[in-house]
Amino acid sequence: MAAVADTGLAAGGKFTGIIPRHLADKEVAHRGLSELRVTSTMHERKALMAELSDGFVALPGGFGTLEEFTEILTWSQLGLHAKPCGLLDVVDFYRSLLAFVDHAVAERFVRPEHRSLVLVDTEAGQPVPPGDKWIDRDAPDGVLRPAP
Predict the structure, then answer these.
(1) Average pLDDT for residues 117-138, to the nearest whole number?
(2) What is the pTM of this model?
(3) Could you tell me if 77 and 47 are in contact, meaning their C-beta atoms sit under 8 angstroms apart?
(4) Contact yes or no for 24/18 (Cβ under 8 A)
(5) Where are the domains of the chain?
(6) Biggest alpha carbon distance in the chain?
(7) Each residue's pLDDT tens digit, 12-50
(8) Closest listed residue to residue 3, CA positions, set 81, 60, 69
(9) For 79, left (φ over 0), alpha (ψ -120 to 50), or beta?
(10) What is the pLDDT of residue 7?
């Protein structure tokens, strides 16, 4: 994430970091961000990220990335938010995860309409402005999904 932030900052963007105190104290925090918010716990961090974000994109990562993405996706499934949730599937990094999700749909542990909540792209494109362009609010079945 530091590389993404550094690139964005160099291009004139603004980046807010949210980190729990125990990690900030270990000097893991990026001190060059536009804003750095320090929380007491990881739970507070995730809640604040969800509150401040217009959408969520998971870059290739490890257990923490997987845990955070699946939690925010579950919140979407439960109707706690209607923000887009996407995977940046660089060089098929998430191919196996997506195959697992498709298997869960086939085995009827995940509904097809919930599978459609996972947006996937293989490369970062132009930013999409927030608003109704993110999702199709007028879908006939009432399910939020990427706008056509």
Answers:
(1) 64
(2) 0.78
(3) no
(4) no
(5) 1-52, 64-148
(6) 50
(7) 989 999 999 999 888 788 888 999 999 999 999 999 999
(8) 60
(9) left
(10) 87
Rounded Cα–Cα distance for residues 102 and 98 (Å)? 6
Q: Could you tell me if 85 and 117 are in contact, meaning their C-beta atoms sit under 8 angstroms apart?
A: yes
Residue with tokens 């879908």: 139
CATH of the domain spanning 64-148, picked from 1.10.620.20, 3.40.190.170, 3.40.50.620, 3.40.50.450: 3.40.50.450
Compute the chain's Rg from CA coordinates: 16
Q: Give residue 65's pLDDT.
A: 94
If you write DSSP's letter for every residue of 23-89 in order, what string do you get? HHTTT-S-TTSSEEEEESSHHHHHHHHHHH-S-EEEPS--HHHHHHHHHHHHHHHTTS----EEEE-
- In angstroms, the first-to-last Cα distance of the chain is 30
- The answer to whether the beta carbons of residues 18 and 47 sit under 8 Å apart is no
